[in-house]
Amino acid sequence: MKVCYVTSECVPFAKTGGLADVSGALPPALAELGCEVKLFMPLYGSIPVQEHGFVFAQDLRDLPVRIGGRTVHVNVWYGTLPDSDVEVYLVDHPPLYHRGSLYTDDPDEDERFLVLQHAAFAIMQRYAWAPDVIHANDWQAGLMPVFLRSSYGWDSLFSGTASLLSIHNIGYQGLFGAHSVHRAGLADDLFRDGGPLSHNGAFSFLKAGLLYADTVSTVSETYAHEIQSERHGAGLDAVLRTRGPDLFGIRNGIDTTAWNPATDPLIAQNYTAATLDGKRPNKIALLERFGLPFDPEMPVLGVISRLTGQKGFDLLQPVLGPLMQEERVQLVVLGSGDRTIEEFFGWAQRAFPERVGVYIGYSDPLAHQIEAGADAFLMPSHYEPCGLNQMYSLAYGTVPIVHRTGGLADTVHDWHEMGGHGNGFSFWDATPHALHTTIRRALSLWRTPAAWREVQRRGMEADYSWSGSAEKYLDLYWRSVHRHRGV
Question: Would 271 be classed as within a structural domain?
C-alpha cells in the first residue's frame, strides 16, 4: 500500500496541537505494517532542517506550482521521520511559510496551503510515484480529494488513487472568499449558487474535501457520531450525514515510548502497574516543583491543557472554591491560553497558596511530572475529538476525571457505572454540579486504597499504542481504494 500523507504539522518538526502528534506517529506505524508512506508538509521558518537531517532536493529545485493563474516556484527538502523509513518532503517557499506562527490570519492564508497541496502533486508527478491512497488531514489539505478528481484528473498516474480526508477538529473549516476559488484553479461554477465548494457564502476547503473524498475519518468513534449532530457539527452536520456510510471514527494512539512510566527519563522514579508505590516519590517531587507541601492524606489533581473555552474550565470555576473548602485536596495546573482562565487559576493560587500550584506556559518535562505525580487528572472538555492527555494519564495510573464526549467517552469508563470495572470517572451533563459531584466521587474512592489501586491498574494495563489504530487505518485505506475502483 502506497500512502501520500499530507499534513500542515508533524512532530518533531512543527506542532500546535494533536494533528502534529498523529502525523509523527501514524505514518511510522503504517510503515511497520508494510506501507510505503511519503509525508508532505510546509517548511516553516521555525524548522531547523539541518538539525533534523534534511537535505536539499536538487532534482526538485524551482519546482513550478500554478496558483491563481500564475506560477510559483518552490524548493523541497528531503528527509525521514526519526527512527523510521517514512520519507518527508518539506515544501520550501519563504514568502509563504516564514512567518511568526504556523497559522495566520493573513489574506493569503489560503494560498499558503494551496501551494502545499499542488506541490505535493507536482513532487509525485516528478518522481512518477502513484499512491494507492492520498490521506489528507484537516482543511489545510482538504482540497487534495478535489484536485485529485479535477486539476489532476487528466493524469493517468493518479487514475487508481483513492482519497481519505481526516477531520481532527470540525471547528476549523478553512473558510475563504470567492477569490480563493480562482487561486485554487477550480471552476467558478463549483462555487456559484450553492455549489459543492460553497458554505454559507464562503469557499470551504473542508466541506469541499468532505464531498469529494472517497472516505472520511475522524479521531474517535464517538466524535464521528457527534459531528453528525447539529450541536457538534459546526454547521457541517448535514454534509456529514450525507457521508455517513463513508464516515469512520478511529481513535488516535499515543507514543508509548515517550509516555511510559516504566522508562520515562523525565520523572523522579520509574514504576509499573505492579510497582505503583513508585508514584509516591513522583508526587513528592511534583509538589516540591510547585512549592506545595506534601501530605500523604491529601490527593493531588492535575491539569495539563490549553486554557481555552473548549476545555471546560468554566465548569470548574464555580465549584473550585467550594471543593477546596469541602475536601482536603491539592491542584497543579500547567497551561496557557485565554487571559480570563489564566486569571482564574491565578486567583486560585492566591486563595489557596498551600494547595494550588500554577505554571502558565508549557514545559514537556513538567507535563511528564504531572502525569506521574498527580493522583487524578481533570479534563472537563465541552468537546474533545480524541484527546491524548487522558490516555497519558491512564498509562501513568493517574485516574482521569472527564466529561463524556468524543474520544474521552471512548477511552474513559466510569468506575461506578461499570460496577467497579471502569478505569476512571466521567459525567454526562456539562454542568458545574456534574463536575463537582464526579470529582467528589473520585476523591471518595481515593480514600479506599485497594479500590483505587484497581482502577489505576485497569488504566495502566490497556493498550493505547498506535499499532491497533494503524491497522484500522490500513483497512480504511483498502476500503477507500475499493470504493474508488468500484470494487
Answer: no
What single letter denotes the amino acid at residue 423? N
**Does residue 351 sit in the same domain as residue 440?**
yes
Whether residues 108 and 235 fall in one domain = yes
**336 and 436 co-located in one domain:** yes
Q: Are residues 216 and 364 in the same domain?
A: no
| 3-state SS, residue 248 | strand
pTM: 0.92
Tell me the residue range of the domain where 123 lies: 2-253+467-484
Q: How many Cβ atoms from other residues are within 10 Å of residue 91's Cβ?
A: 26
Same domain for 347 and 233 = no
Helix (H, G, I), strand (E, B) or coil at 264: coil
Residue type (1 letter), 231: R
Domain-embedded: residue 43: yes
On whether the CB atoms of residues 7 and 91 are closer than 8 A, the answer is no
| Cβ neighbours for 323, distance < 8 A, ≥ 6 positions apart | 329, 436, 439, 440
Alpha helices in 330-381 (DSSP H): 339-351, 364-373
One domain, residues 363 and 414: yes
In 58-178, which residue ranges form alpha helices assigned H by DSSP? 94-97, 109-126, 144-149
Beta bridge partners of 300: 330
CATH for 355: 3.40.50.2000
**Does residue 263 belong to any structural domain of this protein?**
no
Q: Are 18 and 42 in contact, with CB atoms under 8 Å apart? A: no
Helices (H) and strands (E) in the chain, counts: 17, 19
Is 334 within the bounds of a domain?
A: yes
Q: Which residues of 193-230 are buried (b: 16+ CB within 10 A; e: fewer)?
A: eebbbbbeebbbbbbbbbbbbbbbbbbbbbbbbbbbee
What domain count does the chain have? 2
The verdict on 77 and 166 lying in the same domain is yes
Per-residue pLDDT of the chain (487 residues; tens, 9 = 90+): 999 999 999 999 999 888 999 999 999 999 999 999 999 999 999 999 999 999 999 999 999 999 988 999 999 999 999 999 999 999 999 999 999 999 999 999 999 999 999 999 999 999 999 999 999 999 999 999 999 999 999 999 999 999 999 999 999 999 999 999 999 999 888 888 778 888 988 999 999 999 999 999 999 999 999 999 999 999 999 999 999 999 999 999 998 988 999 999 999 999 999 999 999 999 999 999 999 999 999 999 999 999 999 999 999 999 999 999 999 999 999 999 999 999 999 999 999 999 999 999 989 999 999 999 999 999 999 999 999 999 999 999 999 999 999 999 999 999 999 999 999 999 999 999 999 999 999 999 999 999 999 999 999 999 999 999 999 999 999 999 999 988 7
Same domain, 110 and 184: yes
